[in-house]
Amino acid sequence: MNINGLDYNTQRERLVLPEYGREIQNMVDYAVSLPDKAERQRCAEAIISIMDRMFPQNRGNEDYEQKLWDHLALMSDFKLDIDYPFDVSQAKQITHKPEPLAYPMSPVPVRHYGKMVFGLFSKLKDMSDGPEKDELIRITANQMKRNLMQWSHGSPDNEKVASDLARYTDGQVQIDLDNFQFTNVSEKEAVIHNRKKK
Questions:
Q1: Of the candidates 189, 103, 198, which has an alpha carbon nearest to the alpha carbon of residue 147?
Q2: What is the DSSP string of 48-69?
Q3: Is 111 helix (H, G, I), strand (E, B) or coil?
Q4: 147 touches 117 (CB < 8 A)
Q5: What CA–CA distance (Å, rounded) separates 143 from 132?
Q6: Using only C-alpha atoms, what is the Rg of the chain?
Q7: pLDDT, tens digit, for every residue of 91-124?
Q8: Distance, CA of 49 to CA of 10 (rounded, Å)
Q9: What is the model's pTM?
């Protein structure tokens, strides 16, 4: 739909640095079009002054002025022929995106337990028997029950927790449900606990 007099951002040219807005970009484009170098220089300095006032909280940062001139060079696509007070040849590095980071762990088999609980499973496999391992089993089993309750994956019954704990520790941890004491956690408490972690 094309209505005379309406100018949508989607129909305009994409901004190089959107944080400065379209008006600053228009000023930069105007400065590039000026035929006189002295006039371009004055215009560029005025633009830098406005850019500086837009983000006063950044003035204490290292190389702040250098960054402003780099941004001006980027917005003009390096076509603004002026005497820059700084070397802007490295400005293009700002636009390079870093390579994506590799995910630190392969996807967990069941997401409702999460990466940290699977880390506990691995630790339990390598631990020798004793009171420290018994305490870690108790903490892990209770966290598993809390997670099941929180994410509503079936009923958070004790048998499911015991079965999963044995399964994901390759049978090395077996809970005796007749003697094992789970902490009583209601569904409401599990939700509150999750919100506090966030």
A1: 189
A2: HHHHHHH-GGGTTSTTHHHHHH
A3: coil
A4: yes
A5: 17
A6: 30
A7: 887 777 888 877 665 677 777 888 888 888 989 9
A8: 29
A9: 0.48
Residue 195: band (very low, low, confident or very high) from pLDDT cuts 50, 70, 90: low
Read off the amino acid at residue 81.
D
Candidates 28, 33, 77; CA nearest to 48 is 28
- Which two three-digit tokens encode residue 27? 């000023």
Residue among 92, 93, 87, 76 at smallest CA distance from 29: 76
Residue 167's nearest CA partner among 117, 132, 129, 127 is: 117
The number of CA neighbours under 13 Å toward the Cβ of 179 is 4
Q: What are the distances in angstroms from CA 149 to CA 127, 179, 185?
A: 27, 22, 9
Q: How far is CA 183 from the centre of its chain?
A: 34
Structure tokens at 170: 């390759």
- Residue pair 51/45 in contact (Cβ under 8 Å)? The answer is no
Direct distance between the N- and C-terminal alpha carbons of the chain, in angstroms, rounded to an integer: 44
- Provide the token pair at 117: 């609980």
In eight-state DSSP terms, residue 180 is -
Number of CB atoms found within 10 A of residue 153's CB? 14
Q: What is the DSSP letter of 77?
A: T
Query: CA-to-CA distance for 173 and 11, rounded, in angstroms?
Result: 62
Give residue for tokens 């506990």: 120
